[in-house]
Amino acid sequence: MPKLTVLGVGGCGCNTINQLSHANLPPSVELVSVNTDAQAMAATSSHARIQIGPQTTRGLGAGAKPDVGCAAAIESAQELSQQMQHADIVFLTAGLGGGTGTGALPQVARLAQELSKPVIAVVTMPFSFEGQHRKANAETGLQALLESANAVIVLPNDKLAEVLGTKVTLLNAFKESNKILQDVLFGLATTISQAGLINIDLNDFISVISRQGRAAMGVSNLKADDDLVSAVKRAMQHPLLDNIQLNQAQAAIVSVVAKDTIELSQYNQIGATVHEQLPKDALVIIGLTINPDLESELEIMVIATGIGFAQPEIQDPIPAVNDNYINVHNFIKRPALHVPEPLQTKYDVDNLQIPTYLRQQKPPTH
């Protein structure tokens, strides 16, 4: 059975691990708490705990400084790598904007990448009222994370009030945000560990996750008399996720769990709806598992990846003649320039073959 390792990094990440520990996840999911704050981490429920940077922070936290969180992760790189080396898929979660999560999470992703592990990161962005400094930290951390993680799902905290309403309690709002990761972990563990009627295996999942960039993921249920197309779209674009363009996604994996009464037309409609939201050349893998005891008519899990990562290549201008240095890699990629025919010269070419010191000697006098 494929092993899914989830590392919650920093205070927010460890809070997510706490919630997941009460979610009755499959045994193939391993939960790991990672923090610089020894006291906060001691209260975390998880399978394993890693206190990073004991020399860097002395167990007192990163003090809202991402560079300290980064240094702590580098100090504890060996422990982090050992924890991830037996995982088939690595999930990372943290709140960006502070010190440990913002600074350490990109380093943890880089270590997982060095181990050739597919990495999915789920991060929250700070509330607007938390100020520009915290927002700038979060955006810098996000850009660093995108360089190492395969798929990055962004949950802006401002969406909580927008979607759930201002009267929702803060605790329930964060529970709803964490539930996205919880649902996908459960759905993914079930999908790749069971033989389906139309199977999705670990390599299928890795093929989709290998498209680096932003990602969208979600799970939705279809109740009796619900609209199937709406259910698929809910799974593809969860309202708590950051606004992203699905028409830029490079790949998607769709897992459908249904009763044995599912119709061929329903399965076809699910595939058609997914393809309508994505580019025509996107890789789409759709699996189907039959579960006669399912409470709803069917469940749909979607992960779309590779959104908005590729940047157009900017060609450097041709260096001027008086440039001191030329970038050889850029230079050899340019098309060959037209070379004109050599100019006629007034010099005797045959005469130039004679070494200079001989040509300049005076002829002997008789």
From TrEMBL:
Amino acids binding GTP: G99, T100, G101, E130, R134, N178
Location of the protein in the cell: Cytoplasm
InterPro entries documented for this protein: Cell_div_FtsZ, FtsZ/CetZ, FtsZ_C, Tub_FtsZ_C, Tubulin/FtsZ_2-layer-sand-dom, Tubulin/FtsZ_GTPase_sf, Tubulin_FtsZ_GTPase
All residue ranges annotated as the Tubulin/FtsZ GTPase domain in the record: 3-196
Domain of life: Bacteria
Domain Tubulin/FtsZ 2-layer sandwich residue range list: 198-316
Principal location class: cytoplasm
CDD domains recorded: FtsZ_type1
Cross-referenced NCBIfam families: ftsZ (TIGR00065)
Protein name: Cell division protein FtsZ
Species annotation: Shewanella decolorationis S12
